[in-house]
Amino acid sequence: MKIKVMILLMYIFSQTYCQQNDEILGYMYVFAQEWPGSICKFQKCTKTYMGNYDNGRWNTHGLWPNTMLETTCGMIFNCKDEEYDEDKLTVATKTLIDVTWNGMYADTFIFRKHEWEKHGTCHPDNLSQNGYMLRVGNLNNQYNIYKILASAGIYPDDDRQLIDSEIRTAFTKVLGISTAMTYTCLKDSATGKFYIAELRTCFTQSMKPRTCDCTQPISDFVTCGRTFYYPTFILSKDQQIQLEQISDFNYSFLE
Question: Residues of the signal sequence (predicted)?
Answer without folding.
Answer: 1-18
